[in-house]
Amino acid sequence: MTDFSAWIQACQARVESVLAERLPAAQIAPQRLHEAMRYAVLGGGKRVRPLLAFAAGEVTGADPNRVQHAAAAVELIHAYSLVHDDMPAMDDDALRRGKPTVHVEFDEATALLVGDALQSLAFDILASQPLADDAATQLAMVQLLAQAAGSRGMAGGQAIDLASVGKPLDLAELEFMHIHKTGALIRASVLLGAQCGAAADASVAALDRYAKCIGLAFQVVDDVLDAEASTATLGKTAGKDAANNKPTYVSLLGATRARELALELRADAHAALAQLGAPAARLRQLADFVVERTF
Amino acid sequence: MTDFSAWIQACQARVESVLAERLPAAQIAPQRLHEAMRYAVLGGGKRVRPLLAFAAGEVTGADPNRVQHAAAAVELIHAYSLVHDDMPAMDDDALRRGKPTVHVEFDEATALLVGDALQSLAFDILASQPLADDAATQLAMVQLLAQAAGSRGMAGGQAIDLASVGKPLDLAELEFMHIHKTGALIRASVLLGAQCGAAADASVAALDRYAKCIGLAFQVVDDVLDAEASTATLGKTAGKDAANNKPTYVSLLGATRARELALELRADAHAALAQLGAPAARLRQLADFVVERTF
User: Fold this and answer.
1) Do A123 and B110 touch (CB under 8 A)?
2) Beta strands of B76-213 (E only): which ranges?
3) Smallest Cα distance from B75 to chain A, Å
4) Interchain CB contact of B177 with A (< 8 Å)
């Protein structure tokens, strides 16, 4: 195992442990809701957003014992969005992370409440213990996550996505959608990780540029994988975008140019990190990981 | 107009103004989502939770310019819960505050995202400017609201409610459900309003007792009104509980005993306030208002 894959596994184990501890036990009432919340969150996913938070924390010398809570919060926002997106009123998907989706395994009402309660838990965790050098910074972190999740961030991106099905989007419109839908939370993951340490203004600006590139690269690769990989490999239904007539980087650019674009975005992400030196090593590796992943 | 009704109108106007300002304009992308968010929140409702926050703020000498933001935050959590509750997967209701529900006026996917984004906005507002004497207290306020909204508060109460349809509940089980479903957010409204000022431990304990009584009283009266008032008066579908075979205080106790219980809870609420003296006058009036309301 390389040093990088050991680091990934250690970060994943850390965030899994915080999530397992902070999600109420399935024995606590209301039991079915808590069981479904744990089903939705635990034991799956690449944990890309937590990994970004841990890696950004290394840039600012943040204590991983702080970062792990910010990482859990962003992962909970991500997990809630998947539960709601998979519901019949949205993407109507039956498979997620290799398992039946929450509304299939439980029921629609439970899936709705699971998403709602996971969002609340994210803010509970982000506010619940000292994660930054002062409480005012931590309040700003709560605000950052709330805006990244909200109507001008992730939820807004979902709305733009819904409105775009079957419509011809150009590249700028597609980018606008993804900057909201996935980019906002990826940016929040990077910045929240950094804010657990002593984030200087200059490094925040560099991290912001990095996050924008990596968020788009992530989506471009997602589109390529959706078009080319199998459902078994992805753990979610492959080929959904084409089946739903959704505009993607592949449908707009073709797979070859989309793969080139991902590599360009990786180069831009690396360039953004240049000034940050050695402490940004994990962020560089994660840029490679996001672009080279096959699942 | 009495002094009390003038105070109510002033508080309602204040919170309406904060909500109108903080909800993104319907001209901002994604337009349809923002239009639906404003539709769900503005121009309706009694604003009971904001009123409780303002009244509790008077006990601790809180500046209403602070309290209005906490009031807006609790109202947004309440509004999001109504949007999701009305959806077909939950109560499947077509009428709310005298208007078509969000999923009827817009569509189900939009209703789902409206609720999600309103919850995020609540935390954004609660974290976004100084609302307490120090940032650590304000972080504790974020945590309080997150727990009140989450799986061991309001969302958990919804889950208990869903699980109870068609089942014989006893009075203790019914109370357990309501303490979560409506009580948690009412308690948060009172405590958040108080925490905008200088809340002493003794007054917090008294306010907590008051909030528990008033939360249950509110629900008992709701049940009586659902059984006895008309859809036109309520602005929402009347008689739903009986139609859905839901256990209520009226179905368990009969309407006469339920009305008596509401009066007893009001007396308990007044008793809890005894030590707080004159500054608790508005909370006393609100206890009367909640029990004597006809809509």
Assistant:
1) no
2) 95-96, 99-100
3) 15
4) no
Q: What's the CA gap between A196 and A130, in Å, rounded?
A: 9
| A123 touches B at CB < 8 Å | yes
Interface membership of B195 toward A (CB under 8 Å): no
pTM: 0.95
Number of residues assigned to chain B: 295
* 3-state DSSP helix/strand/coil % of chain B, to nearest 5: 75, 0, 25
- In the stretch 90-109 of chain A, residues with CB closer than 8 A to chain B read 90, 107-109
Beta pairing partners, B96: B99
* Residue B238 pLDDT class (50, 70, 90 cuts): low
Q: Hey, is the C-beta of B143 within 8 angstroms of any chain A C-beta?
A: yes
Q: What are the chain B neighbours of A136 within 8 Å (beta carbons)? A: 135
Q: What pLDDT score does A231 carry? A: 67
Model pLDDT for residues A144-197, shown as the tens digit of each residue: 999 999 999 999 999 999 988 878 888 998 999 999 999 999 999 999 999 999
| A181: Cβ contacts below 8 Å, ≥ 6 apart | A154, A157, A158, A160, A161, A219
- Say which CATH architecture domain A3-290 belongs to: Orthogonal Bundle (1.10)
Thinking of the domain B3-292, which architecture would CATH place it in? Orthogonal Bundle (1.10)
Spell out the residues 6+ positions from residue A164 whose beta carbon is closer than 8 angstroms to its own: A173, A177, A246, A247
Predicted local confidence at residue B234, as pLDDT: 65
Cα dihedral sign for B265, B268, B274, B276?
A: negative
Query: Cβ of B136 and A140 within 8 Å?
Result: no
* Spatial distance between the Cα atoms of A134 and B5, rounded to a whole number of angstroms: 42
What is the ipTM, given to two decimal places?
0.95
Tell me which of B293 and A101 has the higher pLDDT. A101
Cβ separation of A151 and B119 shorter than 8 Å? no
Contact B151 A120 (CB under 8 A): yes
Non-local CB neighbours of A135 within 8 Å, separated by 6+ positions: B134, B135, B136, B138, B139
Mutate to test the interface with B, among A139, A143, A173, A178 (most CBs of B within 10 A): A139
Inspect the interface and report whether the beta carbons of A117 and B37 lie closer than 8 Å: no
| CA–CA distance, B190 with B212 (Å, rounded to integer) | 10
AA identity, residue A282: R
Least confidently predicted of A217-221, B100-104, B198-202: B198-202
What is the distance, to the nearest Å, from the Cα of residue B153 to the centroid of all Cα atoms in its chain? Answer: 12
CA distance A69 to A78: 14
8 Å CB contact of A34 and B142: no
Each domain of chain A, given as residue ranges in start order, spans: 3-290
* pLDDT single digits (tens) B240-282: 777 777 789 999 999 999 999 999 999 999 999 999 999 999 9
Query: Among partner residues B24, B29, B155, which is closest to A117 by beta-carbon distance?
Result: B155
Q: Which residues of B touch A80 (CB under 8 A)?
A: 116
The answer to whether A119 contacts B116, with C-beta atoms less than 8 Å apart, is: yes
* B129 at A interface, C-beta within 8 A: no
